[in-house]
Queue: 4 jobs
Job 1
Amino acid sequence: MTLTQFVAKNTFRNRRRSILTIISIGVSLLLLTLMMTIWRAFYIDSGPPESALRLITRHRVSLTFALPMAYREKIRAIPGVVNVAPENWFGGRWKDDKPENFFPQFGTDPEEITKVYTEWKIPPDQFQAWIHDRTGALVGRTLVNKHGWKLGDRVILQGTIFPTNLELTIRAIYDTDDPNAASVMYFNQKYVYESVKYMKDQVGVFAIRVDSPEAVSRVARAVDDTFRNSPQPTKTETEKAFGLSFIAMLGNVKAFILGISLAVVFAILLVSANTMAMSIRERVREVAVLKTLGFTRGGILALFVGEAMSLALVGGILGALLATFLVRAIAESGQFFGPGLRVTFPTMLVALVVAAFVGFASAFLPSYRASSLNIAEGLRHLG
Amino acid sequence: MAIPISYNVRNLRLRLGATVMTALGIALTVAIAIFIMALLSGLQQAFMTTGNPLNVMAMRKGSDSELSSIISREQFGVIKALPGLAKNSQGDPLASGEMMVAIVLPRSDGTGETNVSVRGMSPVGFELRPEIKLLEGRWFAAGQREVVVSRSISKRFANAGMGNTLQFGKGSWTVVGIFDGAGTAHDSEIWADVNQMVTDFDRPVFSSVVMQASDAVAADALSNRLSDDQRLKLDGMSENSYFAKQTKSGAAIKFVGTLVAIIMAIGSCFAAMNTMYAAVAYRGREIATLRVLGFSRPSILTSFVLEALLISLVGGLVAVILMLPFNGLTTGTSNQVTFSEVIFQMRMTPAVIAIAMMFAAIMGVLGGVAPAWHAARQNILAALRG
């Protein structure tokens, strides 16, 4: 019987208690991993490498104001700019108002948009079919899977912002590495311009691709300077920053995530401490025997801490694994429109470290008291 | 005969450490549930109580938001002449052509900028909303670059206090008054003169027309007439129902909040179960003695479930007390309809507290049932022998 075996046997001496503790800690760590994953996706993840070369230009005052199409060529003339594509949010209703039937739809220039979003994978024949069909649509793979569409299907969008309905035919499907990023529908904006006269040559935002990461801030400044004093001034920021501005609108998301994470860690601490205290209390006589055999105080402390940490780590692994499945399910469901939502190895590692720390901290006080017990009194203890 | 509750209370006091820790764990879960419910309750309050029942709104047919609606001046002229409109003391019809715009303002706590709604109206607009009272300063004067803001906005955004200047459109606007939004959706709005806004934003059209009917019957008739008129191509609705629809902004909070609360509840249930199992194991001989004395199995079951319930109710109470300071806290989130920030107060209503305590009770009962069952069914002789 080695020391590790001894610790392992003791960890599961009361199987029901250990399993309940593991489940409790596992569930809490699932939540913590979820929180950390969301934090990472929002604030740390920088998106696919192609995203680093993209900027979004919108009207300085509000996203609800349009920019003139004439800006496009002026932006293209700025050194460092490789491609400029307009994006017009259509906001149409498909089938009904239920949240699961909602998806982003943009009117754009089919030929140039694929040069801006270079990470899209579209089969060449489908791409040709799309650019030659004025009423054709390009749809992301995740969206297609979610609604069971296939090439050639008709999709009708009722205009809620613009007084027209669009009857689109799916001509092309794009794939991306991150399934979260493949949940948008694009179509030719000329279709909207023909139906809604007052929207002609009005653009919601411009998506810009630059030639190098160094050009990003220079181009952003240059674009805004060009239009600073015109009737429609612009605000240009990286694609990442643009996405973050929507999240910031939700409220103090950072505080919320931090608050929940703290509450969860504290709750795990309580659960683990409770279990260890119960476990140690019923073994007072055993501790006395161990001391008689020659185990030092430090040794006994290490045994108990080891037990607590093992329990917590098993719970942690369970929680992190469950979180991975949950997050993957959310990503594939297409409910969450944003790239980067996945549980990475560093995130899982952090969860395990937290688990180990909780195990350590929760066992410390009861173990210390147990290890400093007077041998004779311990042997006398009736437990 | 039932086992007296004092037995349970005394036992809880005996193993105080475990009791406290379990209760605290449940308290944390309930606290999170209260937080989410208070947020949703506040959002609900902001939208459900907005609008005068006699007020009717007209928007372009098919628009679900003032932001996306356009009404021309000609249409406004026709609307003003419709029968059933109340008149003010000067004999003018109470109809206000309004323009909704979303501008970007930085928050005063430095957490970034967000969209804020600006509602352009004519002075008639004040008469349409008598429940909104001025707290400081005065209403803006027609034709001037002046605005009035809600008290919540003056505190939440930088440079939005009395006398400050806001920058939007083609220049600066002075804040000349602060009004009390009375917990309605108007708490999230800045009001300005509609004609000034028209020139600033180059939009010679209105977003909506808000009008007051002479009585409730006329209000219904007006709504229907507006929707049915083929020339006008408008939708008429009561102001109440327009704002009530905006409660869907809370959908994201509800989803995430419910998910978090359920996950934590599962964790707490297992923790409570753990504690109760330990209690049952520790008191094996006691339980056997109770059985010998004549207490039936159901009474043992009930007793232990009650003990778990006691712990969880204490936890629930602690949570309620912990969360009380949050009651009335002003916060904001994004309104999916106006695409701007909606400011509201967190509200811990009696309903919220009741649901929270029920939540705690359910966790306690669920956590206590299995160990209690185990206690009730244990073999008396084996337990007595230890």
Job 2
Amino acid sequence: MVEEIVLLLLIVIAGTGGELCVARTMRAVGPAPDLRPATLLQIVFRVARIGWMWLGLSLMTIAFFSLLEMLSLENVSFVVPVTALSYGFGALGGKVFLREQVTGRRWAGVLLVCIGVGLVLMGKR
Amino acid sequence: MKTSASFPLNTYLLIVLMVILGPLGNVLLGKGMKRIGAATAWNPPEILHFLTQLSRSGLIWTGVACLMAFFAAYMLVLSWADYSYVQPASAMAYGMVAFLGHFLLGETVTPLRWAGVLIICAGVLVVGHTPPRTTEIK
């Protein structure tokens, strides 16, 4: 049980931290003007020169291997919904780290997601 | 500057891809990891053995490929929409994971867990009715 809690925390904290770093990178790169391969390749080269991207990838790698270990212990229909706990961290991180304006309605949606996660945890058997 | 009205189709298309590929990748990883089993210790030989087993699993590779495609779609959406909009919007995938876990892997999903997943999806719908971007693109 302790191992599962540690793995869950690693998935949520490292995963959310990694996604925030990636979001910050993409904010610096700017919007993709189109989806042509040449444009996408240019974006990849620009992204690779930004330090936040590498930090984000490192954190996401930690989260990924923690997820693999957790999936070997529990069912996927339990593990994946429980990781939605990251939504609370994500909205908070988006506001603090990326200075996004998170509206009241969006907070309400995030709260519902968290309540749903709570029920999934309670429904574990 | 792009406005939210200039990218709705691409946004929705990529979010649909995320909803399909993310859960499929996770289900394939779940099936692969159930076959491989948990790592029994965290010393270097055991970790090496664990990584070797991972690298020989077709299910793991297919799952990783799905997740990489998911990640590419996710990054593109993030380049024009708020993180706090995209992240909950992709939560629809949680319903898909429970569905696939139950019907493809035969996992037992209790009524309480289904209720939790439905509420997660309701949260996603609430978030979906907020503007995709609330901050200026510099």
Job 3
Amino acid sequence: MTNGRMRTIKVDTLARVEGEGALHIKLRGEQVTDVKLSIYEPPRFFEAFLRGRHFSEAPDITARICGICPIAYQMSAIHAIERALGLRIDPAVRLLRRLFYCGEWIESHALHVYMLHAPDFLGYEDVIQMARDHRELVEQALRLKKIGNRVVQLLGGREIHPISAAVGGFYKTPTKRDVQALEEDLKWALEASLQTVKVVSGFEFPEFEQDYEVVALSHANEYPLNEGRLISNRGLNLDAAEYEDHFIEQHVKHSNALHSIIRGRGSYLVGPLARFNLNFDKLPAIAQEAARSVGLKPPVQNPFRGIVVRAVELVFACAEALRIINEYEPPAQPRVEAIPRVGEGQAITEAPRGILYHRYALDENGMILAAKIVPPTSQNQKRIEDDLREFAAQVVAWPLDEATWKCEQAIRNYDPCISCATHFLRLKVERE
Amino acid sequence: MKGIVRIIGFGNLDRGDDAAGLLVARRLHELGVESEECSDPLSLIESWAGADEVIIVDAAVTGAHPGTILVQDVDHDTLSFFEGRETSTHGLGLMQAIELARSLNRLPQRIRIYGIEGQLFEIGVLPSPEILAAVESLAQQLARVHSPSEP
């Protein structure tokens, strides 16, 4: 296909991503002339909706932004507000929040690895087709997801849009017995996750190595979830309060979502690859060993191998949840009192898809004066376009339907949660 | 003999008329009829485990007048009134969850779906009056049949 004619790869409705958007790639011969990932966003609805509300409402309001990662939204909101209020949290509450987050990672990673991404590698249109030939894998995924749901339900009060997390702690904390009741399920989940690493590492991966700037939280002695410095492989080392000095959001004409870039540098990558590459030594031994056993070691620069990294993070989430339920002693109080004061607070936590930044400004009565939310998918959006610009050139000579499918798969590497960044996704590859 | 019947309201409370199914489940609860609320399609498969008959209420988009109540039994045919609704605000989608359950041989003996025709699905929008009227009407209709006092 080197005759110089223009073609377009177009996906009007991207399947197997959370939410909706569209991709439009223009090709001239073997040259990619244009890549646009369009996202239709209700313009910053939630940021506007939060203004004028009391800070105590923010965890519940922000949890509604995403049905897949509500805990991430709650955690970033709560941490940012606690910072604005100068609250100190009971270590037992901190541990419970970590367990809460592990539940969400298990739910989200099980969903993406098996239901949304595995069909690409196994050659099925979707998980429904895949289930007919790989029933055991899908049943395993459903059970893993259900176990994640159980953890979330115990701490959040319900599976979707949990309501128990609060500024200062939880409205209600579980007993030791409640928490330990998760043990058998989590032991099964850990074994299933180890098996998942083996299964997905056996998939075929396109040769596609990229030189990313990867950005993730980093904590002195933990694989990052709720806190840490924000670091990158190119020298960033920031407190959350410095985030907006280094990361800027740009309006682009073709998308309602904002593109995040690192000031003066450009696109960057957040999520499992970034965490794994920057924090491999903080993974528990069992997860490190699972990675090594399949030849996975940092830096992973092929985004298609993200599915293996997600499986390793499943191992981490199960092992970490087990560690916490064994250590857990209920806090003396479910939460500390949150007394309003004028202030501003920022927080970054690691949602399953990558870092999630929140900032709140509060008045003396605890009312929210300003809110800013930067979800992981909008941070990865420019990076997805950059990947596609390189990747589309590799598949340009393929039949259009195969090239289109491969490009969709390249987008799914990022597990984009378009409904957080935005609203609805559609793909178009145009050849002329 | 009806066997074990489970009524599940499905939808998203924050997207206007997509709340219809959840609101029916809530109203049924007030009327003393056991019902569940569900926003995660994959959880549906777990929700109906052990049931002989499942009734799902969801919002639908068919081009009918807003508030129109549609009904369809799931069998080997496609769900015609959901055909036009490729995109769901619930991620995987109700149809996909049902088809996945079918692939896994985990469909209950009978699934009946009630769709309430909606028109506004934007984030933060309240359900429209036509939809609220249909919610009340359908809840009353289901309560008459499935109230615990009924034989």
Job 4
Amino acid sequence: MTGLLTDLMHDRADRLDGPEVDLAAITRDGDRVVRRRRTAVVGVAAASVLAVVTGAALFGGGPARDTDVVATGPIAQLDLLSWTSGRVLHTGNGATVELDADVRAWVWVGDSVVYTDPSGRVHLWQGGVEREIGTALAQGDLAELVTDGTFVAWVGADHRLVRYDVTEGTLVRAPAMPGDRLRVTAIDGAMVYAADTEGVYAWRPTELNSYQTLGTDPRAVVLDAENGTLVRTAPGRTVVLERDGDTLLVAAREFADLSPDAGLLSVEDKDRGLVVDTDSGVEVTLDHGHEWAIGYQWLDATTVAVLAFDGINEDEVMDASLLTCDALTGACAEGEHLGAVGQWQLPAGIHLAR
Amino acid sequence: MTRRDPAAFAEFVAARSASLHRTAYLLVGDRGLAQDLLQEALTKTYVAWPRLRDPGSAEAYTRKALTTTAITWYRRRSWGERPIDTVPDHAADGLADDVATRDLLWQALQSLPPRQRAAIVLRYYEDLTEAQTADVMGCAVGTVKSQVSAGLRSLRTRLGDRATDSDLVPLDLLEVTR
């Protein structure tokens, strides 16, 4: 008798198709690592490298950069770092707000705050007044709330998408989608993007009873959408930008955040926080000085808030810091030391568990 | 294997990638991630290639890279979207209980902390000794024992009365092996 556990592992492993190993990518990436090590020895750092580009053309002639900072409010200074600890919201200028409940995941929506609490209630804090606006399903460590600055979307307790207009105070529910494990992944004004076990969807809340199936491959999830630019996941540690029929492939893990005008994309690859210019494909490596980092929120058109970790390969608790980085030069400034994961949450709509 | 010989490396990849891919899949539980994990571990192997004296060393190195990379991925991967990879079992009614038990065990294995899961995969899939497992994981033998023990305890708890201890892992495999 081999034992249920061993038998199960062999059974599941034997069902796999053969791997598709990209030998060219291995040698290219490996040679790059070797070159980087050699370069480091002589004390020269490469400031930027070109993104991996395929397709007919790079993006060009994109919309002009919008340098306006998002509107500020009584507490909100959206050009500052912000985080929550328990039920207290902190901003980098020292201001704090005590919310009604502990924060599980949260986002800025304009100068309002929308957050989920541990019971799944969705709260809106607006101008010092707080009220409940719905209930949301917990999504593990995936996004529970997504926003484009005006609207916020989540998956309701009835397993249907919900979009809430913070300005109007109106809530719209999507029709039921066919698969399991529905989660909302991106929102761009009139369009909400979602994925479940059966596919990837775009839902336009003005069309109450219909949605569009973008594909049945649940791996091609829409990670972000701004100004008509879509960012999707793709196999092989890659995200794909799509705009006006052109595509740009960027080596990255499963997170990507477009700047408000979609001119820049924040990603992480091989522990490096990167910003990619979506017009030229040029990458800028963030000079963050930590073991691992990622830009998670755009504070303005070219400044990104960065979460950085140290102790990531150790058994000890990972130590987190917030920084602000200039996406054009890669220069970073230390912001706040947050300490261990699980004691704070960032305005990214994701619950960061210990 | 004293220099970074692309042809020799390609030969190694062609010969061993299927087996390594299966281990990667068990370590991360997702086909797409397993593919990425294998790619990353092979890249590390390619970088280390001049130091690896023979294909056996290269395979051991890659297996170690798979394991340590999978563990650290979990620490990094509390951030971001994750592709879905659901592989449901289907069976006739008479086999439904068995299928349900196996699905439950698979889900329980997926939910183990990464070190416990790695220790169990290395011990009961790769059939490594505790000392070999400790070497791959870069930890003490005592840590392997505790990780395996905690992992098996969690699996038993999840299975409830669907399986006995000896159903899960034969008693002879629970004995210490060095």
